[in-house]
Amino acid sequence: MFNHAKFPISVGVANIRHYQQQMQHFPKYLTQASEFGGFQELVMKLIQSVP
User: Fold this and answer.
1) pLDDT in tens, 31-51
2) 14-43 burial, b if ≥16 CB within 10 A, otherwise e?
3) Distances (CA, A) of 51 to 13, 46, 48
4) How far apart are CA 23 and CA 2, in angstroms?
5) What is the C-alpha separation between 37 and 51, in angstroms, rounded?
6) Tens of pLDDT along 7-21?
7) Where do the H-state alpha helices sit in 1-51?
8) CA-based angle 15:19:22, to the nearest 5?
9) CA–CA distance, 37 with 23 (Å, rounded to integer)
10) Burial class (CB in 10 A: 0-12, 13-18, 19+), 2
11) Residue ranges of domains in the chain
12) 9: which DSSP letter?
């Protein structure tokens, strides 16, 4: 899911840390918040980066 060869820029929400041992690929970026809060954090960062 977060294979860097296929998805060089990937983002996961904080609660996936609980599954890190089971994952073959970990996202390049990780939010501070979990679940919806993490998604909201990502969206706000994206919105803020638009000129």
Assistant:
1) 999 999 999 999 999 999 998
2) eebeeeeeeeeeebeebbeeeeeebeebbe
3) 25, 10, 8
4) 9
5) 24
6) 999 999 999 999 999
7) 35-49
8) 165
9) 22
10) middle
11) 11-49
12) S
